[in-house]
Specification:
4 helices, homodimer, about 30% helix, Arc Repressor Mutant, subunit A, alpha+beta, 9 strands, three-stranded antiparallel beta sheet, about 30% strand, DNA-binding
Chain lengths: ~140, ~140
Amino acid sequence: MALTMSGTSLDFPSRLRAAGLRPTRQRVALARLLFAGNHRHVTAEGLHAEVKASRMPVSLATVYNTLNQFRDAGLLCEVVVAPGRSYFDTNTGHHHHFFVEPDGELHDFPSDKVTIAGLPVPPKGTRLARVDVIVRVRR
Amino acid sequence: MALTMSGTSLDFPSRLRAAGLRPTRQRVALARLLFAGNHRHVTAEGLHAEVKASRMPVSLATVYNTLNQFRDAGLLCEVVVAPGRSYFDTNTGHHHHFFVEPDGELHDFPSDKVTIAGLPVPPKGTRLARVDVIVRVRR
DNA sequence: TGCAGTTTTTAGAATTATTCTAAACTCCTT
DNA sequence: AAGGAGTTTAGAATAATTCTAAAAACTGCA
């Protein structure tokens, strides 16, 4: 019987394979950091610092590659809130963000309760991809 | 009698002074490019290319400085839509954005018609600064 | 107008975030 | 176990932006 939590398994090799990615040691190590617990927001540098502290360090280039691959595979979504810094969010469901300036903290909030009415139709020849709502707050 | 258009004057030195900025030649040149016609979205590189083609070229460092000063003075607002690239918008009123991927085109739409309901309250100790809505569309 | 004093501009170096390169390594299949 | 494709890596390269410190320009005042 597989060990599970809230619908997603901790068998990272299988999850990676299911996403079309080879379960290498470094990808599994990063997946564990990202997906073993609650939803997270990370930057490449931040995740690199974390994994560097572990017994299975991973190069910064690989952290970047892996975050991009995870995003392309739909395991993460990229959030752009501040110039010159990308956040990756393990929550890939519909939701929006609080961004606390100037610290750069990012928090999710579910989109269930939020209704956006009156959006204009997409320009001709384009289709809607996503609607991001960023609530910027200051201390 | 001053030459005016739609409520804002073309007397850029005065407008800069009113915003607390010395009307230097380069600031006036950039203000003219930015504010003489319709609302615009520019990047530092793009504006630099434009002004370089004029009879009063301005260094890239000054373009960056000036865009930041104009933003701090409330003459522009900065829009962050894609990782590693800042857009500056001459429309400082309430409005939101279409972002066309993958070209990186940015279009305004007014926020009058848009209603956002059900936003959660800001985390304790913070006050609302702004709500950005980015409608991402693809060709 | 001429001058001092402060603010700006500038070219180029520095910084930061990210991607690229090509050689070494690992995973998977056989 | 071996071969080949896919990965990882350190370090170089790139891209966007900021910094530095010397030169130039704006401003107020004589």
